[in-house]
Amino acid sequence: MRFTLSLADIEAARERIATHVKRTPLARSDVLSRRLGTNVYLKAELFQKTGSFKVRGAFNKMLPLRRGDRVAAVSGGNHAQAVAYAGHVLGLETLIFMAETTPRNYVDATRGYGAEVVFVRTAIEGFDLLDAHAAKGWVPVHPFKDPFVMAGHGTAGLEIIEDVPEITDCIVSIGGGGLISGVSTAIKERVPSARVWGVETDGADCMSRALAAGKPVTMTAITSIAKTLGAPSASDETLAIVQRNVESVTVVSDAEALAALRFLLERTKMLTEAAASCTLAAAERLRAQLGEHVVLLLCGGNMAVADLCQALATSAIAST
Protein backbone atom coordinates (compact mmCIF):
# COMPACT_ATOMS: atom_id res chain seq x y z
CA MET A 1 0.00 0.00 0.00
CA ARG A 2 1.40 3.37 -1.03
CA PHE A 3 2.19 5.73 1.83
CA THR A 4 0.35 9.07 1.81
CA LEU A 5 0.34 12.13 4.03
CA SER A 6 -2.44 14.59 3.34
CA LEU A 7 -3.49 18.05 4.39
CA ALA A 8 -6.56 16.43 5.93
CA ASP A 9 -4.29 14.31 8.16
CA ILE A 10 -2.51 17.44 9.37
CA GLU A 11 -5.72 19.37 9.96
CA ALA A 12 -7.09 16.43 11.98
CA ALA A 13 -3.86 16.38 13.98
CA ARG A 14 -4.27 20.05 14.85
CA GLU A 15 -7.72 19.40 16.26
CA ARG A 16 -6.46 16.40 18.21
CA ILE A 17 -3.43 18.02 19.85
CA ALA A 18 -4.68 21.60 20.25
CA THR A 19 -5.07 21.51 24.03
CA HIS A 20 -1.69 19.83 24.58
CA VAL A 21 0.73 22.01 22.59
CA LYS A 22 1.46 25.69 22.21
CA ARG A 23 0.86 27.79 19.14
CA THR A 24 4.41 29.11 19.02
CA PRO A 25 5.23 32.71 18.11
CA LEU A 26 6.22 33.78 14.62
CA ALA A 27 7.60 37.27 14.07
CA ARG A 28 9.49 39.28 11.48
CA SER A 29 13.13 39.87 12.39
CA ASP A 30 14.36 43.32 11.45
CA VAL A 31 18.01 42.41 11.92
CA LEU A 32 17.81 39.30 9.75
CA SER A 33 15.70 41.05 7.15
CA ARG A 34 18.42 43.68 6.79
CA ARG A 35 21.13 41.03 6.81
CA LEU A 36 19.56 38.94 4.04
CA GLY A 37 17.93 41.74 2.08
CA THR A 38 14.40 40.38 2.29
CA ASN A 39 11.61 39.86 4.82
CA VAL A 40 12.73 37.17 7.27
CA TYR A 41 10.44 35.65 9.89
CA LEU A 42 11.35 33.33 12.77
CA LYS A 43 9.01 30.50 13.78
CA ALA A 44 10.07 29.91 17.37
CA GLU A 45 9.45 26.22 18.00
CA LEU A 46 12.18 26.36 20.64
CA PHE A 47 9.47 27.89 22.86
CA GLN A 48 7.27 24.82 22.38
CA LYS A 49 6.65 22.53 25.37
CA THR A 50 9.82 20.50 26.12
CA GLY A 51 11.79 22.97 24.00
CA SER A 52 11.16 21.61 20.50
CA PHE A 53 8.54 20.79 17.88
CA LYS A 54 8.62 17.09 18.79
CA VAL A 55 5.63 17.15 21.15
CA ARG A 56 3.37 17.85 18.17
CA GLY A 57 4.04 14.44 16.68
CA ALA A 58 4.28 12.63 20.01
CA PHE A 59 0.85 13.77 21.15
CA ASN A 60 -0.76 13.06 17.79
CA LYS A 61 0.54 9.50 17.95
CA MET A 62 -0.09 8.88 21.65
CA LEU A 63 -3.43 10.58 22.35
CA PRO A 64 -5.48 7.69 20.87
CA LEU A 65 -3.77 5.22 23.23
CA ARG A 66 -5.32 3.99 26.47
CA ARG A 67 -4.07 4.88 29.94
CA GLY A 68 -1.60 2.22 31.01
CA ASP A 69 -0.40 1.37 27.49
CA ARG A 70 3.35 0.92 27.12
CA VAL A 71 5.22 3.15 24.68
CA ALA A 72 8.80 2.82 23.42
CA ALA A 73 10.96 5.17 21.39
CA VAL A 74 14.52 5.76 20.20
CA SER A 75 16.08 9.18 20.67
CA GLY A 76 19.16 10.97 21.86
CA GLY A 77 17.33 14.20 22.55
CA ASN A 78 14.15 16.06 21.71
CA HIS A 79 11.98 13.12 20.65
CA ALA A 80 12.86 11.38 23.92
CA GLN A 81 11.66 14.33 25.97
CA ALA A 82 8.51 14.71 23.90
CA VAL A 83 7.48 11.07 24.23
CA ALA A 84 8.30 11.08 27.94
CA TYR A 85 6.32 14.28 28.52
CA ALA A 86 3.32 13.06 26.51
CA GLY A 87 3.42 9.79 28.41
CA HIS A 88 3.46 11.67 31.72
CA VAL A 89 0.45 13.75 30.72
CA LEU A 90 -1.51 10.81 29.30
CA GLY A 91 -0.67 8.20 31.94
CA LEU A 92 1.37 5.95 29.65
CA GLU A 93 4.46 3.94 30.55
CA THR A 94 7.40 5.15 28.47
CA LEU A 95 10.71 3.49 27.64
CA ILE A 96 13.40 5.38 25.72
CA PHE A 97 16.48 3.87 24.08
CA MET A 98 19.25 6.47 24.18
CA ALA A 99 22.82 6.46 22.90
CA GLU A 100 25.46 6.30 25.60
CA THR A 101 26.85 9.63 24.35
CA THR A 102 23.58 11.52 24.88
CA PRO A 103 24.20 14.85 26.67
CA ARG A 104 23.25 14.73 30.34
CA ASN A 105 20.61 17.46 30.07
CA TYR A 106 18.55 15.33 27.67
CA VAL A 107 18.83 12.27 29.90
CA ASP A 108 17.84 14.19 33.04
CA ALA A 109 14.87 15.87 31.36
CA THR A 110 13.61 12.58 29.91
CA ARG A 111 13.83 10.83 33.26
CA GLY A 112 12.26 13.87 34.90
CA TYR A 113 9.09 13.26 32.89
CA GLY A 114 8.98 9.70 34.25
CA ALA A 115 10.44 7.67 31.39
CA GLU A 116 12.76 4.73 31.83
CA VAL A 117 16.01 5.26 29.91
CA VAL A 118 18.01 2.36 28.49
CA PHE A 119 21.38 3.23 27.03
CA VAL A 120 22.55 1.71 23.74
CA ARG A 121 25.79 1.98 21.83
CA THR A 122 24.25 3.27 18.59
CA ALA A 123 20.92 4.46 17.22
CA ILE A 124 20.86 1.39 14.99
CA GLU A 125 20.97 -0.83 18.09
CA GLY A 126 18.17 1.28 19.56
CA PHE A 127 15.92 0.76 16.54
CA ASP A 128 16.56 -2.99 16.68
CA LEU A 129 15.42 -2.98 20.32
CA LEU A 130 12.42 -0.85 19.39
CA ASP A 131 11.34 -3.47 16.85
CA ALA A 132 11.83 -6.22 19.43
CA HIS A 133 9.68 -4.41 21.98
CA ALA A 134 6.99 -3.73 19.38
CA ALA A 135 6.79 -7.49 18.85
CA LYS A 136 6.14 -7.81 22.61
CA GLY A 137 3.21 -5.40 22.55
CA TRP A 138 4.88 -2.05 23.20
CA VAL A 139 3.61 0.79 21.01
CA PRO A 140 6.57 2.16 19.00
CA VAL A 141 6.70 5.92 18.45
CA HIS A 142 9.15 6.28 15.60
CA PRO A 143 10.81 9.71 15.50
CA PHE A 144 10.13 10.43 11.83
CA LYS A 145 8.59 7.74 9.61
CA ASP A 146 5.31 7.31 11.48
CA PRO A 147 2.44 9.03 9.59
CA PHE A 148 0.83 10.24 12.83
CA VAL A 149 4.12 11.77 13.93
CA MET A 150 4.58 13.49 10.56
CA ALA A 151 1.04 14.84 10.60
CA GLY A 152 1.54 16.23 14.09
CA HIS A 153 4.71 17.99 13.01
CA GLY A 154 2.85 19.39 10.01
CA THR A 155 0.69 21.48 12.33
CA ALA A 156 3.64 23.88 12.62
CA GLY A 157 3.31 24.39 8.87
CA LEU A 158 -0.35 25.32 9.21
CA GLU A 159 0.57 27.97 11.76
CA ILE A 160 3.31 29.33 9.50
CA ILE A 161 1.05 29.87 6.50
CA GLU A 162 -1.68 31.39 8.65
CA ASP A 163 0.76 33.87 10.18
CA VAL A 164 2.59 34.61 6.90
CA PRO A 165 0.02 33.95 4.13
CA GLU A 166 2.28 35.68 1.61
CA ILE A 167 5.10 33.20 2.30
CA THR A 168 7.51 32.58 -0.56
CA ASP A 169 10.07 30.35 1.15
CA CYS A 170 10.43 28.23 4.29
CA ILE A 171 13.73 26.72 5.47
CA VAL A 172 13.45 23.60 7.63
CA SER A 173 16.02 21.39 9.35
CA ILE A 174 16.16 17.68 8.52
CA GLY A 175 17.02 14.81 10.84
CA GLY A 176 15.19 11.77 9.52
CA GLY A 177 12.75 13.97 7.64
CA GLY A 178 9.57 13.81 9.72
CA LEU A 179 9.39 17.56 10.39
CA ILE A 180 10.02 18.66 6.83
CA SER A 181 7.62 16.00 5.53
CA GLY A 182 4.77 17.36 7.62
CA VAL A 183 5.59 21.05 7.22
CA SER A 184 6.20 20.85 3.47
CA THR A 185 2.95 18.96 2.93
CA ALA A 186 0.97 21.63 4.79
CA ILE A 187 2.68 24.51 3.01
CA LYS A 188 2.58 23.07 -0.51
CA GLU A 189 -1.09 22.09 -0.16
CA ARG A 190 -2.14 25.52 1.11
CA VAL A 191 0.32 27.73 -0.84
CA PRO A 192 1.54 25.77 -3.89
CA SER A 193 3.80 28.61 -5.04
CA ALA A 194 5.78 28.62 -1.78
CA ARG A 195 9.10 26.82 -1.79
CA VAL A 196 10.43 24.62 1.01
CA TRP A 197 14.19 24.23 1.45
CA GLY A 198 15.88 21.62 3.62
CA VAL A 199 19.09 21.93 5.60
CA GLU A 200 21.40 19.44 7.30
CA THR A 201 24.82 19.71 8.89
CA ASP A 202 27.89 17.91 7.62
CA GLY A 203 28.13 14.62 9.48
CA ALA A 204 24.36 14.45 10.08
CA ASP A 205 23.32 14.48 6.44
CA CYS A 206 21.39 11.26 5.86
CA MET A 207 18.77 12.91 3.63
CA SER A 208 21.34 14.44 1.29
CA ARG A 209 22.97 11.03 0.98
CA ALA A 210 19.60 9.43 0.32
CA LEU A 211 18.78 11.97 -2.38
CA ALA A 212 22.12 11.33 -4.07
CA ALA A 213 21.69 7.55 -3.92
CA GLY A 214 17.97 7.53 -4.73
CA LYS A 215 17.29 5.44 -1.63
CA PRO A 216 17.88 5.62 2.15
CA VAL A 217 21.54 5.29 3.14
CA THR A 218 22.57 4.24 6.65
CA MET A 219 25.20 6.35 8.41
CA THR A 220 27.27 4.33 10.87
CA ALA A 221 28.25 7.40 12.90
CA ILE A 222 26.97 10.94 13.45
CA THR A 223 29.90 13.36 13.66
CA SER A 224 28.10 16.72 13.60
CA ILE A 225 27.61 18.86 16.68
CA ALA A 226 23.91 18.96 15.73
CA LYS A 227 23.17 15.68 17.49
CA THR A 228 19.41 16.17 17.29
CA LEU A 229 19.71 15.90 13.50
CA GLY A 230 21.49 12.58 13.98
CA ALA A 231 19.11 10.07 12.42
CA PRO A 232 21.09 7.11 11.05
CA SER A 233 19.05 7.16 7.83
CA ALA A 234 16.04 8.69 6.17
CA SER A 235 13.04 6.45 5.54
CA ASP A 236 11.48 5.51 2.21
CA GLU A 237 8.47 7.61 3.22
CA THR A 238 10.32 10.78 4.18
CA LEU A 239 12.64 10.51 1.17
CA ALA A 240 9.66 10.33 -1.19
CA ILE A 241 8.05 13.42 0.35
CA VAL A 242 11.30 15.40 0.22
CA GLN A 243 11.78 14.40 -3.41
CA ARG A 244 8.29 15.66 -4.17
CA ASN A 245 8.02 18.81 -2.03
CA VAL A 246 11.49 20.21 -1.32
CA GLU A 247 13.53 22.41 -3.65
CA SER A 248 16.93 21.24 -2.40
CA VAL A 249 18.80 20.22 0.74
CA THR A 250 21.75 22.40 1.76
CA VAL A 251 24.47 20.86 3.90
CA VAL A 252 26.24 23.41 6.09
CA SER A 253 29.27 22.97 8.30
CA ASP A 254 29.22 22.89 12.09
CA ALA A 255 31.16 26.15 12.02
CA GLU A 256 28.44 27.82 9.93
CA ALA A 257 25.71 26.51 12.23
CA LEU A 258 27.56 27.73 15.33
CA ALA A 259 28.20 31.16 13.79
CA ALA A 260 24.48 31.41 13.07
CA LEU A 261 23.69 30.24 16.61
CA ARG A 262 25.90 32.98 18.05
CA PHE A 263 24.29 35.61 15.83
CA LEU A 264 20.76 34.54 16.78
CA LEU A 265 21.64 34.59 20.47
CA GLU A 266 23.35 37.98 20.37
CA ARG A 267 20.88 39.76 18.09
CA THR A 268 17.50 38.06 18.66
CA LYS A 269 18.13 36.78 22.21
CA MET A 270 17.02 33.27 21.22
CA LEU A 271 19.26 30.40 22.28
CA THR A 272 18.73 27.69 19.69
CA GLU A 273 20.36 24.35 19.04
CA ALA A 274 22.76 24.02 16.12
CA ALA A 275 20.02 21.85 14.62
CA ALA A 276 17.86 24.99 14.47
CA SER A 277 20.42 27.73 13.78
CA CYS A 278 21.55 25.85 10.67
CA THR A 279 18.43 27.25 8.96
CA LEU A 280 20.01 30.70 9.13
CA ALA A 281 23.29 29.30 7.81
CA ALA A 282 21.37 27.81 4.88
CA ALA A 283 19.56 31.10 4.26
CA GLU A 284 22.95 32.79 3.96
CA ARG A 285 23.89 30.29 1.27
CA LEU A 286 20.53 30.56 -0.51
CA ARG A 287 19.98 34.32 -0.26
CA ALA A 288 20.23 34.93 -4.03
CA GLN A 289 17.41 32.42 -4.63
CA LEU A 290 15.02 33.49 -1.88
CA GLY A 291 11.82 35.44 -2.41
CA GLU A 292 10.23 38.29 -0.48
CA HIS A 293 8.89 36.45 2.59
CA VAL A 294 11.20 33.85 4.11
CA VAL A 295 10.40 31.82 7.22
CA LEU A 296 13.15 30.12 9.22
CA LEU A 297 11.76 27.33 11.39
CA LEU A 298 13.79 27.27 14.60
CA CYS A 299 12.99 23.71 15.60
CA GLY A 300 14.48 23.51 19.11
CA GLY A 301 16.57 25.03 21.87
CA ASN A 302 17.68 22.26 24.21
CA MET A 303 21.44 22.57 23.89
CA ALA A 304 23.13 22.38 27.30
CA VAL A 305 24.91 25.56 28.34
CA ALA A 306 28.14 23.66 29.05
CA ASP A 307 28.04 22.07 25.60
CA LEU A 308 27.30 25.45 24.03
CA CYS A 309 30.27 27.09 25.73
CA GLN A 310 32.59 24.26 24.74
CA ALA A 311 31.36 24.30 21.13
CA LEU A 312 31.73 28.06 20.76
CA ALA A 313 35.18 27.98 22.35
CA THR A 314 36.31 25.18 20.03
CA SER A 315 34.87 27.02 17.04
CA ALA A 316 36.64 30.23 18.05
CA ILE A 317 39.97 28.41 18.37
CA ALA A 318 39.49 26.71 14.98
CA SER A 319 38.80 30.05 13.29
CA THR A 320 41.97 31.73 14.57
Order of helices and strands: HEHEHEHEHEHEHEHEHHEHHEH
Structure class: alpha/beta
Helix content: 40-55%
Q: How far apart are the termini?
A: 55 Å
Number of helices: 13
- At CATH level 2, the architecture of the largest domain is 3-Layer(aba) Sandwich
Q: How confident is the prediction overall: mean pLDDT?
A: 94
Q: Round the Cα radius of gyration to an integer and report it.
A: 18 Å
**Number of discrete domains:** 2
Largest sheet composition: 6 strands, mixed
Catalogue the unreliable spans: none
CATH class of the largest domain: Alpha Beta
Briefly characterize the structure.
The chain has 320 residues and is of the alpha/beta class.
Please give the structural blueprint:
Blueprint: H1 7-17, E1 26-28, H2 30-36, E2 39-44, H3 54-62, E3 70-74, H4 78-90, E4 93-99, H5 104-112, E5 116-120, H6 123-135, E6 139-140, H7 147-163, E7 169-173, H8 178-190, E8 195-201, H9 206-213, H10 236-245, E9 246-252, H11 254-268, H12 274-286, E10 293-298, H13 305-319
Explain this structure to me?
The chain is α/β, with parallel strands linked by helices and 320 residues long. The chain folds into two domains: 7-53 and 146-319, Rossmann fold (3-Layer(aba) Sandwich), CATH 3.40.50.1100; 54-140, 3-Layer(aba) Sandwich (Rossmann fold), CATH 3.40.50. 48% of the residues lie in helices and 17% in strands. It contains 13 helices and ten strands. The protein has helices at residues 7-17, 30-36, 54-62, 78-90, 104-112, 123-135, 147-163, 178-190, 206-213, 236-245, 254-268, 274-286, 305-319, and strands at residues 26-28, 39-44, 70-74, 93-99, 116-120, 139-140, 169-173, 195-201, 246-252, 293-298. The protein has a six-stranded mixed sheet with strand order 1-2-10-7-8-9, sandwiched between helices. α3 crosses α4 (78-90) and α3 crosses α7. The longest helix is centred in the middle third of the chain and has 17 residues, at 147-163. It is globular. The chain starts with 6 loop residues before the first helix and ends with a helix. The relative contact order is 0.16.
